[in-house]
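Reader question, answered in our methods column.
A reader sent in the components of a multi-part assembly and asked whether the whole thing could be modeled at once rather than chain by chain. We filled in our standard form and ran it. Here is what they sent:
COMPLEX SIZE: two components
ENTRIES:
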Amino acid sequence: MADLKDQPPAHWAGTAPQRILAPDGTAVGDPAVGLDPAGLRELLRWMLVARRLDRECIALQRQGQLTVYPGFEGQEAAQIGSATALAAADFVWPTFRELAVALVRGVDPVQYLQYHRGTWHGGPYDPRATRFGPICIPIATQIAHAAGYALGQQLDGTDAVSIAYFGDGATSEGDFHEAANLAGVWRLPMVLFCQNNGWAISVPTAKQTAGEIWRRAEGYGFPGVRVDGNDVLAVYAATRDALDRARRGDGPTLIEAMTYRIGAHSTADDAGRYRADPDVEAARAFDPIVRFRTWLLAAGHADEAFVTACEQEAEAYALEVREGVIATPVPPAEWQFDWVYADPPVTFERMRGEALA
Amino acid sequence: MTTWTLSGALNRALFDALASDARVVVFGEDVGVSGGVFRVTDGLQAEYGDRRVFDTPISEAGIVGAAVGLCFAGWRPVIELQFDAFSYPALEQIIDHVAKMRMRTRGRVDMPITIRIPSFGGIKGKEHHGESPETYYAHTAGLKVVVPSSALDGYTLLRHAIANPDPVIVLEPKAKYWAKEDGELDGDGPGIGVGRVLRHGDDVTLVAYGSMVARAGESADALAAEGIGARVVDLRSLSPLDDDLLQRCAAETGRVVVIHEAPRHVGLGAEIAARVMELAFDSLAAPVQRVTGWDTPYPPASLEDGYLPSVERIVAAARTAVAY
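And here is the structure of the entire assembly that came back:
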């Protein structure tokens, strides 16, 4: 009987995902993805920074500094690998679980976390400046926004690409279908990036959809790929290929990145009600950071001192963000009126006066 | 003097908007080659090409969601959702995103989206083709909702809607698409949030919008024959409401009858009655009357006439108010 530790998460069954690094950190594909050693080290640095910050956010929630926080532990490679492949002009359409992507895009995490602190909906960062859209809670709706933005780029003749992040559960929504269909019909410069982490709150992928998500692309008339979402090099390469394809005018790509949500859906969720700890422990054996670090060190692109320096940076950064979050004040009451309308109606202004009197 | 239909005037408004702003794009189901099921987009694609005027898959949520993304890219989408009841698949996009995105981005990203929806009944239509969806939209903060009642005002309101920096829902009364009106089109006429008095009278105010405005006018004729002077107010804008006009008319006539096709329960009449009470209680000589569709699903064509407010029902309500 095989050791449970060797068993990948159940939802990874079926088509073997594209992979460059095996779970034990040995190369099974070509690691020359176009990143120089410094670029490769950045992948590790970002993953370490992101994981440490994610854990800090959970602590902040437990301490009452955030309302609810949705963690992403286990999904660092899927997020850092894809985000690193983006060009500055590309536009990200996130869900509520893409803090690691936001970091790579240069979004100030203190501003980002105001969403989870309950001080601003959507996040007060500038989505145009960061090219990272507002945090999106309604499932799959942001994929249609990504399609519209891609259409806008196509009409303007730019070479910017729209990338929509979503989960396995989102593919059950009508908006996923409608947006994917638009992307196919209009050959939009767009990447549909699914992080299949095995869980939509408590419902496992097997109860979410009977087929493999990447295969849906064929029905929409564009390619789909299944990639090992815990292999940061494979994610980077698949995203880069999809972006190149979109930039060439060849249309969208659906990427299904197979990963695992190590934590609960959010700090408000008790995952013990629907899944067993041994399954989670087994999934930890496929940890994306351990895998990449093992390879990076063995390949001689980094040494232990680099890893230690990254960990120290991550620690300091997490504490810096913590201080920033705690220092964020409650917004003034008038802010709930200030941006509802660009051209506020008279009746609205009267209500503002009533509310703020 | 030119004779316009509402369909033709709206069509001209779209032509002129496309001509005046290169960022305007028009899309929806059947709006391109066919020119729209009510011909409101007729000829636009031939004139402006299939990049600025284009057909979409049957995909209401996708159409509205795409409009949101286009706004982030600096475009000004004018979209059509083909029928009232077919706008419902897009409610999530409209309520969760179109209405809120400006606030969520602290004013960094405007949503200058115009959503045209052929609406209301009175055309002996099929099921799901005669509904009054205005309350769903008017209840949502961040949206503006307008309803033209005539050809010339249709042009004015649609030009204002497209030029407005906020999202505007334009509910076009299907029953009036082919109604004619003589005059010149004016894009600078009264804006969003401004109602108008179409007929003067001092005994009672009939408040209506869309195709019910004409019916209020017929009712005023009938009431005049009885010696009752009825004032007819065309609301034009359901969100925001023209509070000042409602207050003035209520104060001057002391009696108000609200008329709409939508069911009575939580219909716009409830809001208008409440505002009239808040703004002009001391002037009221009678309770506000409501003449509305019944609290039933919109009926089959053969029962439509019994559902929609009739001249008889409006006149009876006005008499009740005057005799109170």
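What stands out: The longest strand of chain B covers residues 256-263. Chain B has twelve helices and 14 strands.
Send us your own complexes using the same form.
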